[in-house]
AGR3 protein (Xenopus laevis), 165 residues
Amino acid sequence: MMYFPMMELALVLFASSNLAMSVRKDIRSPQTLSRGWGDEITWVQTYEEGLYNAKKRNKPLMVIHHLEECQYCQALKKAFAESEEAQALAEEHFIMLNLMHETTDKNLSPDGQYVPRIMFIDPSLTVRADITGRYSNRLYTYEPQDLSLLIENMNKAVHLLQTEL
């Protein structure tokens, strides 16, 4: 007779743990790869993975070089993360990568290794030197007030993909 209540208890525990697991699945945990640039965006982990996915999925790769201790990077990150338009463009039309270290690809630092630096690579794996920010001495840098230019350049990268490739 003691056996039946134990079976009931086991069944209740099993059902409640399954319920808890199904509730937990609905809550999306923050992506560590976003590093604050947008948790809803799917981020790749490495430059090589980004290049592979850009080619495979026929989407431009957007590479954001930044450092945690850089106040300019933090300000740009905040503006980018708060922009619904930038977030939607990034999620829908780009392979996204943010790096806190330099890559071995010298094409990603044609005018120096400064941060923040944002570059676009098309699916033919060509670094787009024609998509730049507003500064002549740091071609690929953007400031928070340059967010509209960054969004314009994101749209340009998507448009070039449709017209050139």
Observations:
- Confidence is low (pLDDT under 50) at residues 9-29.
